[in-house]
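Lab channel / #folding
Pinned by the channel admin:
"Please post every new chain as: sequence first, then the structure tokens as a reply. Keep commentary short and put observations after the output so the thread stays searchable."

First post following the new format, from NK:
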Amino acid sequence: MCSNSFNFRYTIRIVPFIIFTFISTSSKTLAENIPVTLFIDPSISNADAIFEQAKAEVLQFSPNVTLENLVSKSGPCGELESDTKDIFSFFQNYHAKNYRITMGPTCSANFLRFANLTAEIQSLQINILKGYPYDHPTMIDMITRSPQNLAENLVAALKGLEWAQVGVVMCEECYEDDEMASEKYFSTVQDILADNNIAIKETLKLKKGESSQNISQEISVFESSTRVLLLFLGNDLTDYVEFLSAMSLKNYTTEEYTPVIVLSKNSLELVYPWKNDVSTIEVFDKTFIIHNNCYDKNKISSFLSKYSFSSLDETIISLQMYEAYHLLGYYLSNAITNTTLFNYVTPEKSISSMDIHGPFGEIYVNTNGQRVAGYDVKFINKTQTDSNFVTSLGTVGAHKNCPRLACLRFVINSTSHFESPKDVPLCGFHGEICDQTGVIYAILVIVAAICLFLLFYISIKRFLISTRGRSVSNPWLIPFTEIRFIDLTSTEGSMQMSIQSLQQKIAEREHFQQLARTKLIATVDQSYVLVDKFVVRDKIRYEKNDINILYQMKSQLQHDNLNTFVGFANDKLSHIYIIWQQCFRGSLHDHIFTKERRREAATNFEGAFLRDILKGMDFLHNSSLEYHGNLTLQNCLLDSHWIVKLSGFGTNRLLVKWKASGQIFTEDHTPIIKSEELHYFDPALKKIWKSLTGTKQDKYLVTPEFGRKCDMYSFGVLLYEICLKKKFVPDLTDIPRDDDESVLIDDQNDAQASKYPLPIVLPDGVDMHNDLIKMLENCFGTNRPDVKLARKIIDTVLKMQGSLVDLMIKNLTIYTAGLHETVRIRTLELEEETRKNDVLLFELLPKEIAYQMKRGEKMSTTTYKHATILYSDIVGFTSLCSESEPIEVVTLLSGMYQRFDLIISQQGGYKMETIGDAYCVAGGLPMAREKEHIRIICMIALLQRDCLHHFEIPHRPGRYLNCRWGFNSGQVFAGVIGISAPRYACFGEAVMLASKMESNGKEDRIQLTLYSKQLLEDNYPEFTTSPRGNITVDTFGHLLTYWLEGIADGSELKVKEYQDALNEDLTKVPAWKDGEEPVPSVLTVTQKDRITRAKEKVLAEKKQLEERLKRQMTLNEILEDHEEEVEMNVVLRDDDDKHSAIDLASILSAPLDDEDEEEEVGRVIGHGRLDSQASTIPEN
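Reply from TO:
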């Protein structure tokens, strides 16, 4: 292989040269051995193995064809000596040995020499290296990347996509390092496309490494000629990023232009750039890919697993060589049976007529001796996320129904539902297909028709509005039919809270239902409105001044800080409705005093709120309305931008007048002016309202100047409540009157509200600017400030740092900090609950099993070859239950099982289950123990028996429980049963036999099987047993069983009764490790232990006394304390001698503090009955 012309992954060079000889056979045309000479580069280590595999497979379908492998290694490709040696060997084998069939070479330097020689001497040559652009009469081309096969695939794909004209973008430099690239012979591809009526309109040649900016300037050549672009820019998809980016820069959208990437090199597995950088999918979107996937990785995986290849090129050549062996096998097999098929001069005609079943699928060769293999066609779509953005449109298929006996055809997959884009724009490249003039006329006609329709619609709408009752002179009069009420009894929210709050639950349900009697939420013209409802006694008589006020409110009073007045409406049931626009965030009253809406950081907004109120008042005071007249916190609404809008202006003076004349009253017979709002009105104004007679003279009682002063009084109340977040007066509620009509003002509540405001009393701990206090006092006095002065004071004192948005952001930051703390607390609570759940789960299941269930892993059954199962049952439990209360039975079992569980946990067993009084324990699972399982169960059984001998029945003093125990050893299998209430259980013949040992046992005896007894004798001989004899067991027949008696010290069984003072706490029973001597614990407590404990207690008390005396000593008491200490030491020394030598029994009989504590714990286990047969305490 030439180092300067064919770089095989820079290091791999292969020079196979294979020669076959067709040996003349007998009259039966049987072939014997066909020798094969293989010229191979030493770096190719798999050629021999591939040959042997192919030889064996050829023999399977052609037993008469036997290949022999003769290896001849050649030198490096491109060296004159090596190339000449190959040519010499070729001539020698041809003339001397009559080898007429050649496979190879794989060296580019010798490729043309061999092609010319085989054509000259009429020798069959099989090409496995690279594409050959010329027709060769004696060559069979096995290359899937040949220029002919590439062109045939392009023709099939373009016809299948219905494209007849394309543009070509070629980068010849991009294939300089690829000796096997068919793109170097692109002229052959062009000729084949032209022969099949595929027109190449433009060809753009690029240089390697060009930037997208340069490319974007060059691709404009395609604008007037084509929309489908065939791209030949390299062997990897990453080579096409710059060009596709250039299309984006040029605004060549993929809806108009269609890039088609052509990859003739078989990479075995296509690597998509967006797997590493997902942003690249944007430039590849709507791009087609035609790539060589003849050797699908799924089909060749078995072949690749047998060999190791150093490069992709070596792999492809090996695959083509492997298929060539099969092709030769079919060819020679057919030639043996039909000699007319064998032809050295024109073998392609014979081979193309055969059905060749290759190792990876059918092999098609046309009559020109060129292999035909289909490529894959794919489409990139960035919305197809479930398939890595790739849609497979199908594979170009091969067939023999054509004159050349091997052709390609492409049909889009029906399952893809893909519609191919057009290769020509809808109106042509220059708009010649479409008549633009007609389009313009059509657009103009459509626009004119739309305009006429809009004019007609507006006219009809105005006519309908006028016929429904709205008039130009009275725009404030709303037809009742246009109001769509919302059922407040089914919604949850305050009357004047935000629309969002209608979906939230409120605590004060009764108060809400009271508000719903007179206040409603509705929609008018698809906008939310707030409606006040009143009952009309007589028909409302609108005076000229009233109509003028309503007209001004509806048509002229428009300001950023005024709420929109919608109008009045009347129904047929004698009700009048006053309609106002509903604001998004409710009223200031809701935000200051409603607990559900209160914000901790709201103190930063007082200045903004007060400024908005004063702006609205200033506008009203300078308008034709002249004053507000109903300024309350409930009428200060907040829109979606947190701007205060004043509502309720103008209408209050009409309601007061109509009530004075007896024209209206409330439906629930409560006052017209709600008591919760009485403190906002000047007492002088309320006095005038009470004196109204309903005549024309009433309108002169409230002058505009007086009305403005009353507004400033109301503003003083607002200032107090907004700044101090405190109600001006206590809560006042309205009680419906017994008579048929309501009143204007509740006199009793008004007397309570009139006690305020002077003197002003600030809450403790609240600081307020002196200027604000002074203005507050003036608002309630005779020299009240006007709006302009109030605005100056508010702007000066409550100057806001930054904008309202800045304050909101600051408050949100504070809220977020609190939210983080709340989340942290909730997280800790969740973790604590999770821990509790884990503890409970670990009590129900083994930890290993519990962890697997938490991870969602599948629970598998585990087999334990070495395990021991213990069953126990209370004797006479049924009769005891019949004589006891249920709570007594539960208490009894709870106390017994607590002791049993403690013993099991200390000895290393595992409690499987409890059913009533039945108790099952396992040793050797879930943690496997090869030998120790039998020792664990024996210790548990003995300790449980001793425990019951001292466990007095709580509700039957003096009576004790009797149990049967039985266990067996053997193989068991265990697993988790159930999902909603999982249970860890074990099964097997050993488990069944253990249950039989218990049921066939005797009271206070521990029965075991022969196999368990043998395990004890082999591993733990310190346990003593006695034979029971032969018993009959259901299902198992006659069995020889034994009794477990206890623990032997030496060869003699030691039995010692428990004493009350020596009953140790079971929690102090240490686990008995395998290989250690038996631990005395509960079973082997001696008097020596008690002597030691007594001495240690005396010494401990002595030490404590010394430390206490040292702390209490003073300088004057040192001598006396020293003498007492000497005397104490003498006494203690005498006591020690006395305890150790004279009267040890007296010490043992004296109660100790520690012992008392242990005795209390010990009584949980029990004292009392002594049974020499059941006890297992050895004596000294």
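NK: The chain is about 40% helix and 15% strand.
TO: also worth noting, The two ends are 96 Å apart (CA to CA).
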